[in-house]
């Protein structure tokens, strides 16, 4: 029997390290957080999928419905309700969480089996690319779908292999602090960075920057873009090693190194973010860095557990991945 009503939850994500590597077939180390988006979908007559609470032209809803139908899933008419405890434009992937929760709830209401996680992540990432105009990679969607309580997940975007990594912080906590500058992917420097990486790979004669050895000899700023991507991939594996050892000091240093690389080589920081990073350091952080696409959004920092967090900082813990609730 087709269920009439279905509810799904998809979490936002924090990316511990591995930034601007996903669209270069590189490595990332995100985890799903406990905050996220809940979507309830209820069957209604006709074929339209409507969401009275969302703007009529909501691109994510239109995109998700179109992509699910294109994937051969028979979606009947549905009324959709969205609730979220994720701040938008904070760099916590509210749009990926919305798409994933929509897809799971719509499939649930239709009595259809949703595509397996990697395929669903690809489908939702197409929605972001084709309907929202942001040429993002698959980091956010995979993190939301593959999250596990207490664990981060090492993603190899080339092979799409994922490996859970216990988040052993040895008496420390991770927290996010909004910079106050909204993060707007489409139309920001994000698409330009992606294009620069593509161009650098072309000039180096490699299929993606995953295969580059170094960017020496490329014109500025392409050489620095390559240096960021290669050093960031290496930092992901160093961070995995630090977590295995429970070495918070080493992890903090890696966060700082990632931030410097994103600020100086990849040039995705803005003054508000620099102020937020400085506030974290002043409050005793072992390391702090810009997170997500950049150009605003949130900062991620590592603090001793007993430390008082700076004003506005919110602790984040790894929670379970996206799922049907009912
Ligand atoms: C945004 C994108 C991701 C990824 C990050 C940078 O969050 O949605 O695909 O590229 O930026 O690591």
Got a strand count? 12
Query: Which segments are poorly predicted (pLDDT under 50) over 5 or more consecutive residues?
Result: none
What is the number of helices? 8
Oligomer: single chain
Secondary structure class reads: alpha+beta
User: How many angstroms does the end-to-end distance come to?
Assistant: 15 Å
Helix fraction, binned, reads 25-40%
Strand content: 15-25%
The overall pLDDT, averaged over residues, is 94
The largest sheet has its strands arranged as 4-5-3-1-12
Silhouette: globular
- Please trace the helix and strand order, writing H or E for each element: EEEEHEHHHEEEHHHHEEEE
Sheet of most strands: 5 strands, mixed
Small-molecule binders: alpha-D-galactopyranose
Model description:
The chain has 326 residues and is of the alpha+beta class. Helix content is 37%, strand content 22%. The protein has 8 helices and 12 strands. It has helices at residues 59-70, 94-110, 117-131, 139-146, 189-204, 222-245, 248-265, 271-282, and strands spanning 5-15, 27-28, 30-43, 49-50, 78-84, 151-156, 161-166, 172-178, 287-290, 298-304, 314-316, 323-324. The strands form 3 sheets. A 5-stranded mixed β-sheet has the order 4-5-3-1-12, with helices on one face. It is globular, with a radius of gyration of 20 Å. The two termini are 15 Å apart. The model has no long low-confidence stretch (mean pLDDT 94). Alpha-D-galactopyranose binds next to helix 4.
